[in-house]
Amino acid sequence: MNSELKRMIDEASRVVVFTGAGISTESGIPDFRSPGGLWTKMAPIDFNDFLRSAALRREAWRRKFEIDKTVQQADPNKGHMAIAKLVDMGIVAHVITQNIDNLHQNSGVPPEKIIELHGNGTYARCLDCGERYELEEVRAIFDETGECPECRACGGFIKSATVSFGQAMPEREMRRAEEATLACDLFVAIGSSLQVFPAAGFPIIAKRNGARLVILNREPTDLDSIADLVIHDEIGPTLAPIAMLN
């Protein structure tokens, strides 16, 4: 157990956890941004290109369904479960996440405690009216016709409910994340390279507002120098004893 991290959590009155891809790699989900990851082999489709090109919309959905073969097999790991227990104990107030895999929800964290900065890849929405669509329905139409379905309510484009490159960040979630960050006295960044802005700005905001900052990541980050505690180690084995998981 990392005794210093446990002491800081015990001393805090309001903890916010911030998670990135590193926590989900321990569940077998690849980190697309890392060297050798999917995005180094296949450039992401920009949001504006998705809007302008039917061919690129088809390609986006083809890639989505291919990636889901891996993502949908993943289960929450000890890191997710430890965070869920700390939320249940009233120690962690909110979980701000860059991840789109729904593993925090699957681990038992109440949806209202989770702030998804980059959306959620387990369902889709119409870009115009916001109607929700389950992936199974979209997949059935795509497999049968080879085309991307249009919204039955308004005829708009249906897209995975994630934030693509070139797409605006969700205003409500960004506002919630800022409010949670400013209200905490301990901010724990877990499994994030802290290079993707504006999401990576929240640890800086917390630190400038007087909160203590902990960074738990296997590799060094650009913000290590401002953190009160830096742990370069595996996430699940580090957090599980602190949450007293068996």
TrEMBL record:
Transmembrane segments annotated in the record for this chain: none
Query: Which CDD domains has this protein been placed in?
Result: SIR2-fam
**Keyword Iron part of the UniProt annotation:** no
Keywords, ordered alphabetically: Metal-binding, NAD, Transferase, Zinc
Question: Do you know which InterPro entries this protein is assigned to?
Answer: DHS-like_NAD/FAD-binding_dom, NAD-dep_sirtuin_deacylases, Sirtuin, Ssirtuin_cat_dom
Q: Where is the catalytic site?
A: 118 (proton acceptor)
One example of the protein's molecular function in GO is: metal ion binding
Read off the SUPFAM superfamilies from this record. Answer: DHS-like NAD/FAD-binding domain
Residues in Deacetylase sirtuin-type domain copies: 1-246
EC assignment: the record states 2.3.1.286
Q: What domain of life? A: Bacteria
Q: Where does Zn(2+) bind?
A: 126, 129, 148, 154
Q: Which NCBIfam families match?
A: PRK00481.1-3 (NF001753)
The name under which this protein is listed is: protein acetyllysine N-acetyltransferase
Species per Swiss-Prot/TrEMBL record:
Parvibaculum sedimenti
